[in-house]
Specification:
The protein contains eight helices and eleven strands. It is α+β, with helices and mostly antiparallel strands and 294 residues long. The protein is globular and about 60 Å long. α1 runs antiparallel to α2 (59-76). The longest helix has 18 residues, at 59-76.
């Protein structure tokens, strides 16, 4: 559906924020410059949430959109550096708009892209290729010097700005959620040692800093699995999220859980594990008074 209305700049027409043909988010809903996408807008972790707990009529679309975005990350990022452009065509090739000729490069929007695929892996662990992407991009930035890398690059790694920006330090740390190389700890340490952003760029740098602190500390979670049972009479289905457990030394630790449940009355059976690929059966679960035990 297209809506046209009057704005201070004249008549303006806007459509759906998602391009249904490609199952991808558009740069803007406006028809005049919405025929492309922004890799940093792709949020498969949230699409997966909506696919599991959103309106039933929409779930298939969001499931497809999540997988489309996972595939898109592979197409949009450079195979050597892992860098993504600010804007891209729906086929993943870089897009330089007439209003932003530099958007085919790794710039301010693109800082967020690695955060999106890494959170998707952290929450759902559905696409191991996201781990490769995090290793690749952290390897690139480590090669530029952990304390000295700039913030703007061509996709093949040519640095065009020498600013060591707090916002990029932050999103590089979030990539550690999916990374497998020991260097991942160095990127988290760099975020921890970065001062709270101040000055002219404090809004953007500061927002990324705050979100990255939440992600890296395990406090930005998929809460749907915890909230829905309080509203449901039957918890049968697939559930995923995080929980806190207290260790023998009294320390608290966050962990991931993926459950496939079948309910009959108050009895619950099924399988559980850390992700979809690691499942163990159980037969004596109970769901009573809005509480599940197993």
């Amino acid at each position: 559906e297209v809506v046209t209305g009057q704005t201070k700049r004249g008549p303006y027409s806007a459509g759906n924020m998602f391009e249904e043909k490609y199952k991808m988010v558009r740069f803007v809903p406006g028809l005049d410059r919405g025929g492309f996408t922004d890799p940093s807008y792709h949020l498969p972790a949230f699409y997966e949430l909506w696919a599991q707990w959103g309106p039933p009529a929409d779930r298939e679309f969001w499931e497809q959109a999540a997988q489309t975005s996972r595939d898109f990350f592979q197409k949009a990022t450079n195979p050597q550096t892992g860098l993504a452009p600010d804007y891209a065509n729906f086929d993943g090739t870089p897009y330089a708009g007439r209003f932003n000729s530099a958007a085919a490069n790794f710039r301010y929007d693109a800082w967020r892209t690695e955060m999106n695929w890494s959170v998707d892996w952290s929450w759902w662990a559905k696409d191991p290729r996201e781990r490769q992407l995090s290793d690749r991009i952290q390897s690139f930035f480590a090669s530029k010097g952990m304390d000295t890398y700039g913030s703007l690059f061509t996709l093949d790694g040519n640095q065009t700005n020498a600013t060591h920006a707090p916002g990029l330090i932050a999103t590089n740390a979030v990539a550690s959620l999916a990374a497998t190389h020991p260097r991942a700890k160095d990127f988290v340490k760099a975020l921890w040692e970065t001062a709270i952003p101040a000055g002219q760029q404090r809004y953007y740098d500061g927002t990324l800093y705050m979100m990255s602190m939440l992600h890296c500390s395990g406090q930005f979670r998929a809460w749907g699995a915890l909230a829905i049972p309080a509203l449901a009479d039957d918890i049968g289905g697939r559930w995923s999220g995080t929980f806190s457990q207290t260790l023998a030394d009294g320390q608290s630790q966050s962990a991931s859980a993926y459950l496939v449940l079948k309910q009959s009355g108050t009895d619950v059976t099924g399988t559980g594990g850390t992700d979809e690929t690691q499942q163990w059966p159980f037969e004596k679960g109970k769901f009573e008074n809005n509480k599940f035990s197993g």
